[in-house]
Amino acid sequence: MVTPQDNLLVGTNGWVLLMGFNKGGNLDTKWKRNLDSGSNITSVVWGVGRAYGGCNGKFYALNAETGEVKERNELKDMGNQEVRMALWDGKLLHVGTNGWAMGLEVSTFRELYKKNLGFMAGSDVTDVLVDKHGLAYYGTNGKLYVIEGPGNLIE
Amino acid sequence: MGEYGAVYGRVFFLDATKKTTTATAELKDLGEHEVTVAALG
Known about the structure:
The complex is a heterodimer. Chain A has one helix spanning 118-121; strands at residues 7-12, 15-21, 27-34, 43-46, 50-55, 58-63, 69-73, 84-88, 92-97, 100-105, 110-116, 126-130, 136-140, 143-148, 152-153. By secondary structure, chain A is an all-beta fold. Chain A is globular and about 50 Å long. Chain A starts with 6 loop residues before the first strand and ends with a strand. In chain B, strands 1-2-3 form a three-stranded antiparallel β-sheet, with no helix packed on it. Chain B starts with a strand and ends with a strand. Classes of the chains: A mainly beta, B mainly beta. Chains A and B meet through β1, β2, β3 and β4 of A and β3 and β4 of B. β1 (7-12) of chain A pairs antiparallel with β4 (35-38) of chain B, so a sheet runs across the interface.
């Protein structure tokens, strides 16, 4: 089984790669997948049995063993910019892009929330991280927002 | 124990105890672009 402890996810220029050490102690590419979303900065996040990759306003769930695309989300109406992601507890994937914040239930890929932070901050690279309590922190255009649970904007 | 690093088209593994780069991989055919990495450890 592919585990994050033994492997490294790499994103670059519209590609996602899984790399790991061979017996000689060098890094080998185990698989690589073109996301079919154009060429640009490509973000990657580990999931449970999944590797997530985002590029140019789209993101994908890949089989971590094979790199096969299992799910795709085009982040409709959210532009075609860099995509940042953060996974909480293996269950909820927070996605930031172009001044937007979105949360997805991992098991179903169902959208749990979608908020346009750009109304307040403008559109720009939108980074996200999540703490151990499940609070998602979004930063864009010099402002920080906190989203709780299913999508309550609390700051 | 160590850390991964990445820079335009290349990935590195730095051994924390030896304080040196112990592995380097060139991302062949993918160009020299910004590289992001994700690992746990």
